[in-house]
Specification:
two-stranded antiparallel ribbon, single chain, mainly alpha
Length: about 170
């Protein structure tokens, strides 16, 4: 007797984006589908919120905590150390939360997990092994978009609004 191999929904031909086609749904799956869609939207919104705060919220929070640690108006090493440590801790926490959200989204969307090792870190003798191609998920696209947007905004600020680092001395050159 042969055992039937169950194919994951993300690989089957009757699925689109990890969701089964209309004909293969069972009774009561509309409510489950709506709940899954709401959860996926919530995970995507949380990803957008955290990835924006990775660029804006964590540096502002670190500067605020450092300013609270300062005793005087002059710069000293203690508030500077507090700023660096706070920025490191908050950035690591947000990065861990983004990774957790990515894993939860992949589970909800029935997407296969990513390979644990990067392609360029594979051993040289494993070049003949096929590289598993995994689709980019929505949280990954959101984080990528936020990074692109942050870099473009930084360049626009630097070119058009930052002014000369020389100040008024540029007029005497």
């Amino acid at each position: 007797m042969q055992e039937r191999l169950e194919i994951p929904p993300a690989i089957r031909s009757d699925t689109r984006d990890g969701v089964a086609a209309e004909g293969s749904r069972g009774e009561g799956s509309d409510e489950r589908s709506a709940a899954v869609t709401v959860k996926r939207v919530a995970l995507a919104a949380a990803t957008a919120f955290l990835s924006i705060n990775l660029w804006t919220g964590s540096p502002v929070l670190a500067l605020w905590v450092g300013s609270e640690a300062a005793d005087e108006r002059a710069l000293s090493m203690t508030p500077l150390f507090v700023v660096v440590v706070t920025l490191l801790v908050v950035t690591l926490l947000i990065s861990a939360a983004l990774l957790w959200l990515e894993v939860r989204y992949r589970i909800l969307a029935d997407l296969p997990p990513r390979e644990a090792r990067l392609t360029w870190l594979r051993p040289f003798n494993a070049q003949r092994e096929p590289v598993r191609q995994v689709a980019t998920s929505l949280p990954e696209r959101i984080v990528t978009l936020v990074v692109y947007l942050a870099v473009v905004l930084l360049l626009v600020w630097f070119v058009f609004f930052a002014g000369s680092p020389l100040g008024d001395y540029a007029q005497y050159a």
